[in-house]
Amino acid sequence: MTARALAEWHPLRRVVVRPPGMEAFFGLLEPYTSLYERVFSLSKARREHEELVETLRSGFGVRVQLLDQLLLQAAGRHPEVARELIERVIATVAFRGVGARRARREFRETVRWLDGDQLIQTMILAPELRFERGRGARSVSSFTTLRVPLTNLFFLRDQQAVTDRGIVVGRLAKPQRRRETEITSFAWRAAGEPPVAEIRRGTFEGGDFLPAGDFALVGTGDRTNATGVAEFLENGVGVPEVGVVHQPRHALLDTPDPMVNMHLDTYLNFPGDGIAVGQREMLQSARVEVYVRDSGVYRRSHETRLLPYLEKDHGFRVIGITTLEQLCYATNFLTVRDRTVLIPDVARNAERVLAHLGLVAQRQPARYSRLYLRAAREFGQLRAEGSFFPHKQEARELGLSTVQVGLENLTGAFGGAHCLTATVERA
To answer: What is the mean pLDDT of residues 127-136?
Structure first.
């Protein structure tokens, strides 16, 4: 087993991804309940994903594996995996109404003739077939309903974290996403990389984990809760120190909106050894409980704030970004090696993000108008100066090398390059 990552800036060797499929089509019919930020073009999103994969493979020599292929190849090698895949598909499809028993029996008898893509897509869509009899001997109407399709499965960061110990399978907070870990956990086991731990009682999502060498950060809030953090500290990680970061409320929002900074990696990331990129207001207000490992157990040491924890306690140079850049996923980059990152084109993304925020502010002015006005002001300044991240003086001084990829459609689902990739192995 090679799944292991000690620091975000260690050379990236292997990632697993999954392009958005038919499930995203259904998610875009109603973005809000699908946990998307806004409507976007699915065909363009797929091309963006292809560009991301090609850049990792050709530009950096990263081994990129597709989740579906990982599972199907394992099923081709191991009959027991193939049998489990078939049984999972059978259990996923529901039949109701007139003739349901016959249809269920026939599906069980013929499901093995479906191709691999059909099997996996069936698990993701979770169809239910309901039959109603009309007039006539064979007049039976079939109505197909999708029971919460996994519209966010292409964000492969969240279902697990890869630590110094290996793969830790999480438990996703939102019911729309809860089944995702059933598929990814199955895929890891089938591929011969069984998880070292699984979160079963609390909630834990991979976007809330950032390894940093001799310490690590774990975010807690809307997506990862205290019970999940406790399970993670008990079984999932072994570095000397862990900072548990409490999700901060945005200073311009009187009432919290956890989607503004749903995961730790939406307002903080590490592009290199001793370098952090983050929204300084959030870093200053975020409370951190520091846990130190003693005799194999993490014990709470003290409490501080995230900004001084990074700058003073660990000597990081923090590159600050604006509110607008944070909303445009400027920190949701993927570090490929020390001081080299793959990042969404923040400037291209800004217009769409600002336009959507303007619509939200019109509908709920009391809640979002201050945030919109700040972002609009920053947009004009950043565009005039040409200083959208990573085009900042501090980044140049620190020698950051960046490759920008167009993800303005994919970011419409609330995530960037970091969210789209499950890091499996860093050297």
So the answer is: 87
Task: Enter the tokens of residue 32.
Answer: 């809000």
Last residue of a domain, one of 146, 165, 193: 146
Burial letters 298-329, b for 16+ CB under 10 A, else e: beeeeebbbbebbeeebebebbbbbbbbbbbb
Go through the chain and tell me how many residues it has: 427
Domain that holds residue 209: 12-70+150-426
Q: Judge if 205 and 83 occupy the same domain.
A: no
In angstroms, the CA 180 to CA 327 distance is: 25
SS3 label, residue 403? strand
What pTM did the predictor assign? 0.95
| Strand partners for 401 | 340
| Residue bearing the bigger pLDDT, 137 or 173 | 173
Decide: residue 349, CB within 10 A, 0-12 exposed, 13-18 middle, 19+ buried: buried
- How does DSSP assign 411-424, residue by residue? GGGS--TTTT-EEE
pLDDT tens column, 387-415: 999 999 999 999 999 999 999 999 999 99
Residue 313 lies in a domain: yes
Q: Which residue from 158, 187, 328 is spatially nearest to 260, judged by alpha carbons?
A: 328
* Number of separate domains in the chain: 2
89 and 197, same domain (yes or no): no
- DSSP H or E run through 297: strand 297-305
Determine the 3-state secondary structure of 142 from DSSP: strand
Longest dimension (CA), the chain: 79
CA atoms within 13 A on the CB side of 42: 16
356 lies in the same domain as 387:
yes
Domain ends where: 126, 146, 166?
146
Asked if residue 206 lies in contact with residue 183, where contact means CB atoms within 8 angstroms, the answer is: no
Strands 167-169 and 197-198, by their bridges, are parallel
3-state secondary structure of 36: coil
Assign 28 to helix, strand or coil: coil
